[in-house]
Design a protein that fits this description.
The chain is of the alpha+beta class. A hairpin with a 2-residue loop joins β3 (95-98) and β4 (101-104). It has a four-stranded mixed beta sheet. Strands 5-6 form a two-stranded antiparallel sheet. The protein has a single domain, classed as Glutaredoxin, CATH 3.40.30.10. 26% of the residues lie in helices and 15% in strands.
Length: 140
C-alpha cells in the first residue's frame, strides 16, 4: 500500500503521525512540503480529496497569516491557494494520503482511520499522551 505524508519534521504532530504510520508496519513516502511544496494542481486535488475548503487548510500559528490579513472573508479560494503556494508554511500539516482516504491528521491519531492496519499496538505521543494503551485499546 502506498502512503504519502506531507510532513514537517519540526512539527510534533507531524512526527507523531509519521511514527504511527511506521508502527503500523507501513513506510510512507515523506514529502517535506516546506522544501518541496505541492503544485497548484496537487494542492487543489488534496483539498478536494479531504472534502474541505482551502480556508480549513490554512495554518495560523507560526505563519504570516495575520500579517497577510488572511482572517478576513474577502479572499477567494483561489487567492488562499495562491498564498499557500507562495508561503508553504501556511499549509497545515500533516496531510496523509492512503488508498483508504486523505486527511489532515490533526490530531495525529486521526491517521489511524486511514491506515490499512490501525492496530498499531501501544503508542504514546512525544508529549506523553497515550494514544493506544498496553492492551491495544485507543484512549479517548
Amino acid at each position: 500500500m502506498t502512503i504519502t505524508i506531507y510532513h514537517n519534521p519540526d512539527c510534533e504532530t507531524s512526527r507523531n503521525t509519521l511514527a504511527m504510520i511506521r508502527q503500523s508496519g507501513e513506510e510512507a513516502e515523506v514529502i517535506e512540503y516546506l522544501n518541496t511544496p505541492p503544485s497548484r494542481g496537487k494542492l487543489v486535488e488534496l483539498i478536494a480529496a479531504m472534502g474541505i475548503t482551502p480556508r480549513k487548510l490554512l495554518r495560523e500559528k507560526g505563519t504570516p497569516y495575520a500579517e497577510l490579513g488572511l482572517g478576513g472573508s474577502k479572499w477567494s479560494d483561489d487567492e488562499l491557494i495562491d498564498f499557500m503556494l507562495t508561503h508553504p508554511i501556511l499549509i497545515n500539516r500533516p496531510i496523509v494520503v492512503t488508498p483508504l482516504g486523505v486527511l489532515l491528521a490533526r490530531p495525529s491519531e486521526a491517521v489511524l482511520g486511514v491506515l490499512p492496519n490501525p492496530d498499531i499496538g501501544p503508542f504514546t505521543k512525544e508529549d506523553g499522551e497515550v494514544v493506544v494503551d498496553a492492551q491495544g485499546k485507543r484512549v479517548a
